[in-house]
Design brief:
The chain is of the alpha/beta class. The model has no long low-confidence stretch (mean pLDDT 96). The structure holds nicotinamide-adenine-dinucleotide.
């Protein structure tokens, strides 16, 4: 059953029961409607209370229904809300845990609302490029005022019930209960106390205005300004709330409906919904059942207190998990801990962290120089130099000391995980945990699955990633895993564009206008150009046929490794991150063109964007076909959280799907005719060619 029905004396209690968050899918709506009818038909019932089973009142509409007919199937959410409003017996919503989106809209259709302290209240639709489409933009301003409502609708952020209940004159909550435990009794007794009160109060009957009228809404639009450049929804939310102040209630509802329908059809909303589902899908591993028992992880050890080790440690400390940090030299430990403290102090000075919390976190940190001290850790993560010899020694030591069942992880970005596993007697316990720099900030975690990694090890690290607030994506073993293997092709094309006539700033500008957080050359300057240099030297031996623009080597030969050396593709002033065009780099690029006999040509932004993004797409198609990535959306999630790909475009794979794979293939064929762009690379990957020929998409 999707809703339970019980009598408590003369009050009917309807409990939404659709785990995990009582989403208002078709069956739940039918069950609620039936229960309401039953209560109305029973002469002994004087009042009705609606609540939610489990941890939440209601998480909202069932988003999976959005693109299907099921969302419209009667009773739809509008019909249900009107039925509540028209109930001849008072209906009280008893709200705890979370009340979001359609759940809040449903509650606003009830005559009264009682909430437990601590309840998280939100209209998060804007995060999916939409607005609340079941009256939220019309009813919320009527109960908490225009400004508070608009802030919630435009940000999508949750607000605690007690903060909303403190708004002077609010009529969102008639009672606040001390906790979820006392909520139901209070709601039932409140329902009895209002059972005979008539007329029944309706939110739709309340007035709605702002003292400054339209001037306020103009101010609100200005405030949103450039942050909404690529996202239409926030400004449309303002329009809808403004309609609540200008139009009669039903006309305002119709305005909201029309805007909702328009937003549903935008590519931006499609992209955001794709990523919403993609993020949830990424945590599922097809051959690892969701009920796989996980290993307990109560203590973590980290080998290496360098750039990555320190950042990785902070993630666990932030989650309250004790960490032991191991180095070979005391100075290295001191340096590592000092850097972590500095990072925390920077957060304190920005007001993002309380200083007592800083001390609590660092109190969970222990340091050591001896492997034997780590024996009892449940998980150990290696983050030492990227060198197979060093790593193999580390893993032999770990194999010797770690307790049976401990998970052994490597943060390697390029080495063969299966070879690392072979250094131990327990390859089933070994997994790759590829964090991105800065590891305490970047949300992405590539979980690298070795040939022998045990399913429960995978299940454990996937669950753990949530605790440390990372978004994990599983990758098979290959050079560069999902993200860096693709970015190599992206950077290769960026180099060829320099050979053919672009400047680094022209390429970066085009990619940033497309929406990337950073263009390829600014990104390289941040990561360190020496990393790519080392990879190219290795490639010259491993894959002698792989061609690169000579420009990057020329820039490295000048000692220009990026921000850390004060010069890279750009010039930098000490202490600042502003990238300034460099005459030395321009001269180096010119020299490379001359040496190759290339006459520079004018290249437009569209070609730059398509060359770079389709380079990602073609490599990704190989990655998918080889089974390195499980699904196309995993690749989009990697690019969203690891490489600054714009959310409103949904990731490289959705970008290709929206372009149409037939067009993608044709464009690649055009690039293949360019003698400077590596024709061989532009042969469409077999999977891409097949999908394009069949008129299908990646997703
Ligand atoms: P780093 O040079 O900053 O730190 C390495 C640390 O390991 C140093 O403090 C060093 O003293 C210590 N160390 C070396 N050998 C050791 C040993 N035998 N026992 C104990 N400690 C030892 O390097 P990093 O940038 O932190 O990289 C570490 C690992 O993370 C590498 O495998 C690298 O490929 C990977 N990685 C780096 C990045 C990045 O952007 N820097 C991103 C992802 C993954």
């Amino acid at each position: 059953m999707h809703a339970d029905y019980q009598l408590h004396g003369d009050v009917a209690l309807i409990t939404l029961n659709n785990p995990p968050v009582n989403g208002l899918g078709y069956e739940t709506r039918v069950a609620l409607m039936d229960a309401l009818s039953q209560a109305l038909a029973d002469a002994a019932v004087q009042a009705i209370v609606i609540t939610g089973a489990g941890k939440a009142f209601c998480g909202g509409a069932d988003i999976r229904e959005f693109d299907t007919q099921a969302a419209f199937q009667e009773p739809n959410l509008h019909t249900l809300i009107v039925a509540l409003e028209q109930s001849t017996k008072p209906v009280v919503a008893a709200i705890h845990g979370t009340v979001m989106g359609g759940g809040l809209e449903l509650a606003l259709g009830c005559h009264y609302r009682v909430a437990a302290t601590g309840t998280q209240v939100a209209l998060p639709e804007v995060k999916l490029g939409l607005l609340p489409g079941a009256g939220g933009t019309q009813r919320l301003p009527r109960v908490i005022g225009v400004e508070a409502a608009l802030n919630m609708i435009v940000s999508g952020e949750a607000v605690a019930a007690e903060r909303l209940a403190a708004i002077p004159g609010q009529s969102l909550f008639q009672r606040l209960s001390a906790s979820a435990d006392t909520l139901l009794d209070e709601a039932l007794s409140f329902a009895r106390s209002v059972a005979a009160v008539r007329p029944l109060p309706l939110v739709r009957a309340l007035p709605c205005s702002h003292p400054q009228g339209d001037a306020y809404f103009q101010f609100a639009r200005n405030m949103l300004g450039p942050s909404t450049k690529n996202l239409p929804a926030p400004l449309q939310c303002v329009d809808a709330v403004q309609a609540a102040t200008r139009q009669a209630f039903d006309a305002g509802l119709a305005t909201e409906q029309a805007i909702f329908a328009r937003l549903m059809a935008t590519p931006q909303s499609r992209a955001l919904r794709h990523l919403f589902f993609g993020e949830r899908a990424a945590s599922k591993i097809p051959d690892v059942p969701p009920n796989t028992a996980v290993r307990p992880v109560a203590a973590v050890a980290i080998i290496g207190a360098g750039t990555m080790g320190g950042g990785i440690a902070m993630n666990f400390l932030n989650a309250g998990i004790p960490v032991q940090l191991l180095e070979l030299q005391p100075e290295a430990l001191e340096r590592g801990v000092a850097t972590m403290r500095r990072n925390y102090e920077a957060q304190v000075s920005k007001g993002k962290l309380k200083s007592e919390v800083l001390e609590q976190r660092l109190a969970l940190l222990r340091t050591t120089l001896r492997y034997d001290d780590l024996a009892q850790a449940d998980l150990v993560i290696e983050a030492v130099f990227e060198d197979m010899g060093v790593k193999s020694q580390v893993f032999q030591e770990l194999d010797r000391v770690m307790k049976p069942g401990a998970i052994l992880a490597s943060n390697t970005s390029t080495l063969d995980l299966n070879q690392i596993a072979a250094c131990t007697q327990r390859p089933q316990d070994l997994v790759g945990l590829h964090f991105f720099s800065p590891a305490n900030v970047m949300k992405l975690l590539e979980v690298v699955r070795g040939a022998k990694t045990a399913p429960d090890v995978l299940a454990t690290v996937m669950a753990l990633s949530k605790k440390i607030r990372k978004t994990a994506v599983v990758s098979g073993v290959c050079d560069g895993f999902i993200g860096n293997r693709m970015v190599e092709q992206y950077l290769r094309q960026a180099g060829f564009l320099l050979d053919e006539g672009c400047s680094p700033q022209q390429v970066d500008k085009a990619m940033e206008a497309f929406g990337m957080a950073m263009g390829p050359f600014r990104m390289s300057d941040l990561a360190g150009n020496d990393i790519g240099w080392a990879i190219r030297k290795r490639r010259a031996v491993e894959r002698p046929g792989m061609r690169y623009s000579p420009t990057a080597d020329a820039v490295c030969a000048l000692g220009r490794f990026g921000q850390k050396t004060g010069a890279g593709w750009y010039d930098y002033v000490a202490g600042k991150r502003d990238a300034m065009p460099s005459a030395a780099v321009a001269a180096a690029i010119d020299a490379c063109r001359n040496a190759q006999g290339i006459t520079p040509r004018k290249i437009d932004a569209q070609e730059i964007v398509q060359r770079l993004v389709l380079a990602l797409v073609n490599e990704a198609a190989h990655i998918l076909e080889e089974g390195i990535a499980t699904r196309a959306s995993d690749i989009d999630i990697v690019y969203l959280y690891g490489y600054g790909f714009p959310a409103f475009r949904g990731g490289p794979m959705l970008y290709a799907d929206e372009l149409g794979l037939f067009t993608v293939v044709q464009t690649m064929q055009r690039f293949a005719a360019n003698p400077h762009a590596d024709s061989g690379f532009w042969k469409p990957a077999p999977l891409l060619a097949r999908l394009a020929a069949a008129g299908k998409t990646f997703n």
